[in-house]
Amino acid sequence: MLRTKVKVSKVTNLSEARYCAGMGVDFLSFPASSVDPKTYKEITGWVAGPLFGIEIDANPSELYTVDFFEVPFESIDRIPEGKKAFVHLSVNEWFEKKSKLIENKEKIIAIELKIHSIDDAKKIVEEASSKFDVFLKYHHSFDIDTILKLQITGICLEGNAETKPGLKEYPLSEILEQLEMRD
Q1: What is the DSSP letter of 140?
Q2: Which pTM does this prediction carry?
Q3: Taking the CA atoms of the chain, what radius of gyration do you get in angstroms?
Q4: What is the sign, positive or negative, of the torsion defined by CA atoms of 76, 96, 31, 137?
Q5: CA distance readout (Å), 166 to 13, 40, 80, 162
Q6: pLDDT tens-place string over residues 126-181
Q7: Residue 180, number of CB atoms within 10 A of its CB
Q8: CATH of 5-179, one of 1.10.10.10, 3.40.190.10, 2.40.128.90, 3.20.20.70
């Protein structure tokens, strides 16, 4: 079990999806630009546990059976009726875009904030988390224990491509191992 919720985006292969599921990741998202509907269906058919989503920049495709979408703020109006999305934006955009986010709250499962400095982001994260579930985009320069002290629902990590099927390094394994609850 992990100490916080985790979403891994940019998943493109079964090996990574299975690894993440085995580690207890809550959400997996796949880039529509790299994972076609057939491959998506095959991968999600072999993996149990996480909720599955598709990352889109334009119009969502109905060819994918998803639990959620992942969209940039600019695509918030394209979230289909009855579906929810992770909406990503920079922490610096919060004040400019929060009213539109609040107007679309019923469509948002969580917001994903990209931060540059933990100290600079504390106040914004606190305000955003009073309205939404907030996931922070993890960067390797951040101390995981410091991040977990913020008022967040979870963190976002990114997958990476396989060299060839079954041959893969797992750079996010170090972070997931740090998040494992210890007895």
Answers
A1: T
A2: 0.90
A3: 16
A4: negative
A5: 9, 17, 35, 7
A6: 999 999 999 999 877 778 888 999 999 999 999 876 656 655 556 678 888 888 87
A7: 11
A8: 3.20.20.70
Residue 158, classed as helix, strand or coil, is strand
- Span 24-50, average pLDDT: 95
- The span from the CA of 15 to the CA of 29, in Å, is 14
Core vs surface per residue 59-68: b (16+ CB within 10 A) or e: ebeeebebbb
Taking 80 as the threshold, does the pLDDT of residue 2 lie above it? Answer: yes
Find all residues with CB under 8 Å of 102, minimum gap 6, and list them. Answer: 131
The phi, psi pair for 89, rounded to 5°, reads: -160, 165
Domain boundaries, the chain: 5-179
